[in-house]
Amino acid sequence: MRRGLILILEQRWDSQQIPQLHAVLTKTRGPYSANRKIQLMRTVFNKGIQWKVFDGENPFKAITLHEEKPRERFLSEEEAGALLKTLDDMQNIQVGLVTGTIL
Fold first, then answer.
1. How far apart are CA 8 and CA 58, in angstroms?
2. Residue 71 falls inside a structural domain
3. What is the pLDDT of residue 92?
């Protein structure tokens, strides 16, 4: 993981590239997805600064994210069924590990 982080940090990011990246991501993936990508890159650079593998200011820090509206979403019947099945499978695995029937 650290190696991939270092490869990203070694690239040159200029002040014009990042807003253009955000704009392209907004157009191709949508504003929420573009925001997630910028937030991810902010985190990558913050981690690089913390680990002392990047020296300087976080180039993604100054980007203004798109406004996001909170929403309420409910699972569909299909999604709820898949979630319940997964939880049931996880419980069976945990019981098996505790009882020694799954090693």
1. 12
2. no
3. 77
What the block records as the tokens of 11 is 């690239």
Q: Looking at residues 42-48, what average pLDDT do you find? A: 92
Given the structure tokens 């191709």, which residue do they identify? 28
The boundaries of the domain holding residue 98 are 76-103
Backbone angles phi, psi at 28, to 5 degrees: -90, -30
What is the pTM (predicted TM-score) of this model? 0.65
DSSP string, the chain: -HHHHHHHHHS---TTHHHHHHHHHHHHH-HHHHHHHHHHHHHHHHHHHHTTS--S--TTTTPPPPP---------HHHHHHHHHHHHHHHHHHHHHHHTS--
Structure confidence at residue 69 (pLDDT): 93
